[in-house]
Structure formats: structure tokens, C-alpha cells
From TrEMBL:
Organism from which the protein derives: Primorskyibacter flagellatus
Keyword tRNA-binding listed: no
InterPro entries membership: ClpP/crotonase-like_dom_sf, Enoyl-CoA_hydra/iso, Enoyl-CoA_hydra_C, Mitochondrial_ECH-domain
Protein name from the UniProt record: Enoyl-CoA hydratase domain-containing protein 3, mitochondrial
UniProt feature coiled coil, ranges: none
Classification lineage: Bacteria, Pseudomonadati, Pseudomonadota, Alphaproteobacteria, Rhodobacterales
Family to which this protein belongs: Belongs to the enoyl-CoA hydratase/isomerase family.
Length: 261
């Protein structure tokens, strides 16, 4: 078995991080595997939702500190290595946002530092009770500056700042209250809950969801006026799609739609 396993079921792809002995850390190998899978998904219209999960007792413990320590031995204290590492991690996080398919994090155990960033970068998240979330790099003298980008776009800024500066953890229920996760369920139900959510998404018209995900992230960076102008045009293009016409007709005729895509 590889460091990142792939399983497809009913238009849903599960990507399962499989490095439990390293708490599924975002090592050089894990980042490369995630990037390769996301590149494959970019043009795959047969997959309409993605679940990201982890093996063992943790979802993801962030960057691989042993690799980072080894990287420090390079020229200039590892400056070029660290710049490359954080750039590669950023590429993976942005790739999730750029994917046409919604990505659901299935979280258990811990999600810390860049692991918490990974949860925040996913479109939705389902967490097991007992899961702990933290951007706790400050505890070892490394402020979680890149994880901060995703976290501060998910939860209120004062709560994000407190997590970043104190290194304190929050539990799954608090993560739900703050908006970091969508649902919290018992540990033995978290996989089924993530799969049910993914299947609900996958059952929708893939074209509409792809259009909608891109528009969601485009408009969120705009002023309200620009966002309305942009999304109005997006809806025009969506309305002109033949499968959308079929969906509306089916609704009016009280029958299931017969979509081509």
C-alpha cells in the first residue's frame, strides 16, 4: 500500500493518507502524492466529490518536523529548502480550492498546524467527537503563518488569532461552533457521515456543482457589487446549459431528471 490510497465508489473518490507512523504528516512524499492526485482529478468528470481521510490515530499532524530538521543542514540554514517546502504546501492547499469537485475532510484524532490548514482548505469537513484542532507551531517557536491563511478564512479573526498566538487546541464541538467543520459525529460513524455527505453532492448535476464551486471562491474575494455582477453572469451561463433545462422541466413535471452529465 502506498502513502496515499485511492478508492472510488459511485462517483466519490476517497483519498486516504496512509502514513500512521508519522501521524500522516505532510512530508515531502505526502505533499507530492496529494499534488499528483489533485492534478489527476482536475479533468476527471466521472468523480463528483472527494473525501480526504487519514489512517491511524490522527488525521494529520502538520509538517514533518524530522524532515524539516534535516533540511536545516542545507546551505544558508536550509533557506531554499524551507521556501520550496512552504511553496509546495501552498500549491496543495490551493489545488483543493481549484478542484472542480467539492472536497470533504474526514477528521479524527488530531489536526494540527498544516494539518489544521488542510482541514480549513477543504470545502467541507466532518469530524469525530474527540478530535482536537490546533495551529500550535508557536509552542515550538514557529508561528503558523501559512496555516493562518486558511484558518482565518474559515473562523472569526479573534478566535483564529487566539489559536495562533496561544497554541491552544479546540475540540470538535468548538470547531463546529466556529465554522471550521460542518458536522460532528461519533468516531464509529464519521466515515459513513462523510460518505453520505459526499454522495449527496455527487448525486447533483456535476456541471452545476463545478460551476458553483468556482463561482463561490471567485465571488468571496470581491466586493458585494462585483460579486453580484459576476455571479449573475455565471447564472446566465448555467441557465443556458441543456442539463439545467432538463432539471427545471423535470421539477415542473414532477419526475426525476435525465441528465447527460
Amino acid at each position: 500500500m502506498g502513502i496515499l490510497e485511492r478508492h472510488d465508489t459511485n462517483a466519490v473518490r476517497r483519498l486516504h493518507m496512509n502514513a500512521p507512523e508519522r501521524l500522516n504528516a505532510l512530508s515531502d512524499e505526502m505533499l507530492a502524492a496529494l499534488k499528483a492526485e489533485f492534478e489527476t482529478l482536475q479533468d476527471d468528470t466521472t468523480i463528483r466529490a472527494v473525501i480526504l481521510s487519514g489512517e491511524g490515530k490522527a488525521f494529520c499532524a502538520g509538517h514533518d518536523l524530522k524532515q524539516m530538521t534535516a533540511g536545516r543542514q542545507a546551505e544558508y540554514g536550509g533557506r531554499a529548502y524551507f521556501k520550496d517546502l512552504f511553496d509546495r504546501c501552498t500549491e496543495v492547499m490551493l489545488a483543493i480550492r481549484a478542484l472542480p469537485q467539492p472536497v470533504i475532510a474526514q477528521v479524527h484524532g488530531i489536526a494540527t498546524a498544516a494539518g489544521c490548514q488542510l482541514v480549513a482548505s477543504c470545502d467541507m469537513a466532518v469530524a469525530a467527537t474527540g478530535t482536537r484542532f490546533g495551529v500550535n507551531g508557536v509552542n515550538i517557536g514557529l508561528f503558523c503563518s501559512t496555516p493562518m491563511v486558511a484558518l482565518s478564512r474559515n473562523i472569526p479573526r479573534k478566535q483564529a488569532f487566539e489559536m495562533l498566538t496561544t497554541g491552544s487546541f479546540i475540540d470538535a464541538q468548538r470547531a463546529l461552533e466556529l465554522g471550521l467543520v460542518n458536522r460532528v459525529v461519533a468516531p464509529d460513524a464519521v466515515a459513513a457521515e462523510a460518505e453520505a455527505l459526499a454522495q449527496t453532492v455527487a448525486d447533483k448535476l456535476g456541471t452545476a456543482v463545478r460551476i458553483g464551486k468556482r463561482a463561490f471562491y471567485d465571488q468571496i474575494e470581491m466586493t458585494a457589487a462585483d460579486a453580484y455582477a459576476h455571479t449573475g453572469q455565471v447564472m446566465v451561463e448555467n441557465m443556458l446549459h441543456s442539463d439545467t433545462a432538463e432539471g427545471i422541466s423535470a421539477f415542473l413535471e414532477k419526475r426525476p431528471p435525465e441528465w447527460e452529465q
